[in-house]
Design goal:
The complex is a heterodimer of chains A (155) and B (199). With 155 residues, chain A is of the alpha+beta class. Chain A contains one helix and nine strands; from the N terminus they run αβββββββββ. Chain A is elongated. Chain B has a two-stranded antiparallel ribbon. The chains are: A alpha+beta (155), B mainly alpha (199). At the A-B interface, helix 1, strand 5, strand 6, strand 7 and strand 8 of A face helix 1, helix 3, helix 6, strand 1 and strand 2 of B.
């Protein structure tokens, strides 16, 4: 085998190995990326003049609470079977547990910590949601009104 | 032996074998691998197509060096000299052809070279993909967490894309509402916890 041909083959082999490493890296990263939940924490109060914080976007139904103010936005990672929690302004903790993925839908269990501050969580509902479809969990008492959480699962 | 254990030297010899360049002891050695090692067989089959391109690239290396050393000034001067030395008959086909050859040949040669390089790159990427598949160890497959299969929800569908099943232990204070939203034509799902008198 001539030196020139050998050198060319080494180059080709190097390209192949580098290409294989690149191909191996890209899909692996996307396959491992867990979905996340984008959570808007909204303070809903009863008021005379209706008011909705423009940062909220699509207005969630608030069952008679006409004034809605965005308190904060949070992102929770949703690794499979690993609870993800976030503290709420009223001192309680909201938890989402990603339990399964059926087709394109994500199954999560929403829970809330007790109002008396004791440990543990109370399961509220099992929710099955398509990606980017919002659902709301609310009614937690806070400063004369309630907290409403608008959750959207993003792949 | 797994494909992953194919060494660089072994891959190089397999490439040379695929190009039909090995003889004697080396050829026998590679044929021994091919008789006993399925990974070697697969790799040899994959590189067989690419080997032709490697050879083409090698054989055209003389062209490549001539292209690299091509001096356009010399070519133009040579063309002028050839033109003046040629018979002064107007419409001399021979002179026209000679001029065309000298001026156009650089572009043509480079285009041809680019096509060959492009073909080699495309073939290399395709082969790289197959090398990745070959060298990916079996242990890697379960690493990607398989979604846990769950039964389809029997609850009613409110908004296309969201279903809710209340957890019994949550008690009567938790309800699900399916409400139309003012700012959206679709129905919104609300899991509502009645905490009248709570914190």
């Amino acid at each position: 085998m001539s030196e020139a041909l050998l050198g060319r083959r080494r180059l080709v082999l190097g390209v192949l190995v580098a290409g294989a490493a690149f191909i191996a890296h890209v899909p692996q990263a996307s396959a491992d990326a867990p979905p996340k939940a984008e959570v808007m924490v909204i303070h809903a109060t009863k008021c005379e003049k209706k008011s909705v914080d423009p940062q909220i976007g699509d207005t969630p139904p608030a069952l008679g609470y006409d004034c809605l103010k965005l308190v904060e936005k949070k992102t929770l990672p949703l690794a499979l079977n690993q609870a993800s929690t976030t503290p709420l302004p009223n001192g309680r903790t909201f938890q989402l547990l990603h339990t399964a993925k059926v087709g394109s839908r994500y199954k999560v269990t929403a829970s809330i910590s007790p109002a008396d501050g004791s440990s543990g969580f109370t399961k509220l509902a099992d929710i099955s949601a398509d990606p980017n479809k919002p659902f709301n969990v609310g009614g937690f008492s806070y400063q004369g009104g309630v907290l409403v959480l608008t959750v959207r699962i993003v792949p | 032996m797994s494909a992953k254990s194919l060494s660089e030297s072994r891959m190089l010899k397999l490439m040379a074998y695929a190009d039909g360049e090995l003889e004697g002891a080396e050829r026998a050695e590679v044929e021994g691998w091919l008789a006993t090692d399925t990974s070697a067989v697969r790799f040899a089959n994959e590189v067989a197509g690419l080997g032709d391109l490697v050879k083409i690239g090698h054989e055209t290396s003389a062209d490549a060096s001539s292209i690299a050393s091509f001096d356009i000034a010399d070519a133009v001067m040579a063309a002028v000299e050839a033109d003046s030395a040629a018979p002064k008959r107007i419409g001399s086909r021979e002179a026209e052809v000679r001029e065309e050859r000298k001026v156009v040949s650089l572009t043509a040669a480079r285009s041809q070279k680019n096509l060959k390089v492009g073909g080699m790159v495309a073939a290399a990427l395709a082969l790289a993909a197959s090398v990745f598949v070959m060298t990916r160890s079996k242990e890697e497959a379960p690493v990607a967490r398989a979604p846990v299969e769950a039964p389809e929800s029997a609850s009613r569908s409110a908004e296309p894309g969201v279903d809710v099943d209340l957890v019994e232990s949550a008690g009567d204070s938790v309800r699900v509402f399916y409400l139309s939203s003012e700012s959206s034509p679709t129905t919104s799902v609300v899991v509502w916890v009645d905490e009248s008198g709570g914190k």
